[in-house]
Design goal:
The structure holds 2 protein chains of 2 kinds. Chain A is an alpha+beta fold. Chain A has 5 helices and 13 strands. Chain A has 2 domains: 74 residues, 2-Layer Sandwich (Gyrase A, domain 2); 134 residues, Cyclophilin (Beta Barrel), CATH 2.40.100.10. In chain A, the strands form 3 sheets. A 7-stranded mixed sheet of chain A has the order 5-13-6-7-10-9-12. Chain A has a 4-stranded antiparallel sheet with strand order 1-2-4-3, covered by helices on one side. Chain A has a two-stranded antiparallel ribbon with strand order 8-11. Chain A is elongated. Chain B is 14% helix and 29% strand. Chain B contains 4 helices and 20 strands. In chain B, a hairpin with a 3-residue loop joins strand 13 and strand 14. Chain B is elongated. The chains are: A alpha+beta, B alpha+beta. Chains A and B meet through strand 3 and strand 4 of A and strand 15, strand 18, strand 19 and helix 4 of B.
Chain lengths: 228, 317
């Protein structure tokens, strides 16, 4: 449930679902996201230009020439969210090559976490993750939660260019760099799989909020010969 | 008949196609994009009698040198721009902004530079012949979305122009004085109380310098260090245009049209919608001040901004 609604500037509504990060709170954010998306599609509400769900917040942007904060706030407060909505969440398997040329930060992780590479991989691949949100760059999924023994802070100095496909971890989260971009996560491998497809106009992101994701390890040969 | 097009003889610093922007994609990480200065974008279309949401060419600092091929067009440039028209016979005319011109086959437009601003707009009557991606023509170079494979234009690229009617947009003019202001009005951000009293004091009373780190994603400022007494990180959450984030180093960053869609730095404020055009045009080395307004004031200022834009649109003749 939304705990507090405020304004983010003059053209967005900031819905706060709490300060913790967990699947229950995030599921509530995603339920609101799907519910409002459908109302926009069905033209039941006008002026909303974007919805940005994250771990525990939902930002509703609107067009100030069409509507205003008060109207959108009232609209959100008046919603009854049906928790039985089928969100079509998927289970997705993603291949990762963890050879040293792709796993850029194993040395750092081994030192910081005080466990060896095999153990890191065992813990990382041994879990199914929940997609809390996508964003920052197109299609980047924010997944959780990592096993407590492989949680590590961001790099002290972010890289200016993370290679496309880099698979990273930080704190309780895992992600995938869908494009070359600056970034500060610890990189343990690279996926050859297309995570964002701009030619797919209906659903360009492979992973969407609410999806379950598991990773599996592939060899360098499989990586280089990957064909979708 | 061969299609009319611009041949890019010199690409300029950052020449892209922009329009009103692309909505409903923040949730997958795609920013709104669109013209940084929406008013000047709209005025450029008006000057050539286009629909106001036609895509136009946006350029920054040094603009492109364009040669017209296979046809005759009307064009207009808006902003604070120094440009020349080089006729086929090599006669050179000084260009005036907010005025429509006829360009003949083999004539060139040399957009030499922006003056006291960063962006300018070139519209052609009839518009450019492009395809929409997700409801917009805007080029998003970050995610490579939009025309030209989502990349900024390079030398020898061609930009095709739709079927045109040069009669309708002859001799259009708007009396518009491009002006700028160093006072940026903001609404308190959702993490305003993360900052010390001293930091808030400095935020509203001291100068902030626009650094060289400026692009369509955002503007990095340098000023007094803004002390955060709560937490220099928040759990990543959505951003919108105009959000002012303050990372641990205490220097604010203002989000512009191509911003990352989520961020984990506290938000001290949000620039009001009516001042976004102004903020986007700020050039490195400029000093600005922040002024707080209420939500209600911001809404009234936006109303006045819209009326003002409409006044210029109606005055065009």
């Amino acid at each position: 449930m939304v705990k507090n609604i405020s304004n983010l500037g003059d053209a967005a509504v900031y819905c706060d679902f709490g300060s913790e990060v967990n699947e229950a709170i995030n599921s509530s954010v995603i339920d609101y996201f799907h519910h409002i998306s459908k109302l926009i599609k069905d033209k039941k509400i006008e002026g909303i230009t974007n919805l940005t769900p994250s771990y525990n917040k939902l930002i509703v942007s609107f067009d100030l020439t069409v509507t205003n904060y008060k109207k959108i706030k009232n609209f959100i407060e008046g919603l009854t969210i049906n928790r039985d909505i089928k969100n079509n969440n998927q289970k997705i398997k993603i291949p990762v090559c963890c050879d040293d040329e792709y796993g850029l930060d194993f040395l750092r992780l081994i030192e910081k976490l005080n466990i060896d590479k095999d153990k890191i991989l065992e813990l990382y691949f041994g879990k199914e993750y929940f997609c809390y949100m996508t964003g920052f760059i197109a299609g980047m999924p924010f997944l959780g939660d990592l096993n407590e023994n492989i949680r590590c802070d961001r790099l002290e100095t972010p890289r200016l260019k993370m290679p496309k496909g880099s698979v990273g971890i930080t704190e309780q989260f895992a992600n995938i760099y869908t494009f070359e971009s600056p970034g500060g996560w610890n990189i343990i491998g690279n996926t050859p799989k297309k995570i964002f497809d701009d030619k797919n106009l209906v659903q360009p992101a492979l992973v969407n909020p609410g999806d379950k994701v598991s990773f599996y390890q592939i060899t360098k040969e499989e990586y280089l010969n990957w064909n979708e | 008949m061969n299609k009319t097009y611009f041949e890019i003889v010199r690409a300029g610093v950052n020449t892209t196609i922009q329009d009103k922007g692309r909505n409903h994609l923040y949730h997958i990480g795609i920013a709104v994009s669109g013209a940084i200065d929406q008013r000047n974008y709209t005025l450029s279309n008006r000057l050539v009698e286009n629909q106001l949401d036609e895509p136009v060419l946006e350029f920054a600092y040094q603009g492109p040198l364009l040669k017209l091929k296979n046809g005759k067009i009307n064009f207009a440039i808006s902003g604070d721009i120094f440009f020349k028209i080089i006729r086929k016979n090599l006669e050179v005319e000084d260009g005036e902004c907010y005025k429509s011109y006829i360009l003949d086959e083999e004539d060139q437009i040399d957009i030499i530079s922006t003056k006291n601003s960063t962006y300018g707009y070139l519209a052609v009557n009839g518009g450019f012949d492009l395809e929409k991606t997700w409801g917009s023509y805007s080029i998003n170079t970050k995610a490579n979305i939009g025309p030209n494979n989502g990349k900024k234009y390079s030398i020898n690229d061609k930009i095709f122009i739709k079927k045109i009617d040069t009669k309708s947009a002859m001799n259009k003019k708007i009396n518009y004085d491009y002006s700028t202001d160093n006072i940026i009005r903001i609404i308190k951000g959702t993490n305003f109380d993360y900052f010390s009293k001293d930091a808030i004091d400095k935020f509203f009373n001291e100068d902030f310098l626009i650094t060289n780190l400026v692009d369509r994603m955002g503007i990095r400022l340098k000023g007094p260090k803004l002390e955060n007494i709560e937490n220099t990180n928040i759990k990543s959450e959505g951003l919108v245009r105009g959000v002012i984030q303050v990372p641990a180093d205490g220097n604010p960053i203002i989000m512009l049209s191509d911003h990352g869609t989520v961020g984990g730095y506290p938000k001290i404020g949000v620039v009001i919608t009516a001042d976004l055009d102004l903020v986007g045009q700020l050039t490195p080395g400029t000093k600005i001040n922040f002024k707080e307004v209420s939500l209600e004031e911001a809404q009234n200022i936006f109303k006045a901004y819209t009326e003002d834009t409409n006044k210029y649109l109606n005055e065009c003749n």
